[in-house]
Amino acid sequence: MSCGEPHETDCGEVLDHLYEFLDSEMPDVDRDKFRHHFEECSPCLEKYGLEEAVKKLVKRCCGHDDVPADLRAKVMGRLDLIRSGQPAPDHDITSTAQDN
User: Fold this and answer.
1) What's the number of domains the chain is made of?
2) Distance between CA atoms of residues 55 and 18, nearest Å
3) How do residues 28-46 score in pLDDT, each as one tens digit?
4) Which residues contact 87 (CB under 8 A, 6 or more apart)?
5) pTM of the model
6) What is the helix (H) or strand (E) element at residue 69, kind and residue range?
7) Which residue, 34, 63, 78, 90, is the most exposed by fewest CB within 10 angstroms?
8) Is residue 100 included in any domain, yes or no?
9) Per-residue DSSP letters for 4-17?
10) Residue 34 domain flag
11) Of 33, 40, 3, nearest to 18 (Cα)?
């Protein structure tokens, strides 16, 4: 996604690292760049707002449950595949032959 306008920080970079921004898992200098980008770019700001709302909803509905480490690893693995542009497989990529 891109608004078609030139920015100091590219829309693709912002969207690729959106969850790091939402989770405050990036250096302050990068967070400042992202904030500035959101001030200039309404499509990215809209995407940020949507993802922030989903994150708050999930936290409110499921925030009291501990996430099993293996589930977190599976979800993060799939997200990495999707972010890299690879299609996510329909089957569980983390299962072994003995699990099937």
Assistant:
1) 1
2) 12
3) 999 999 999 999 999 999 9
4) 81
5) 0.58
6) helix 69-83
7) 90
8) no
9) SS--SS-HHHHHHT
10) yes
11) 33
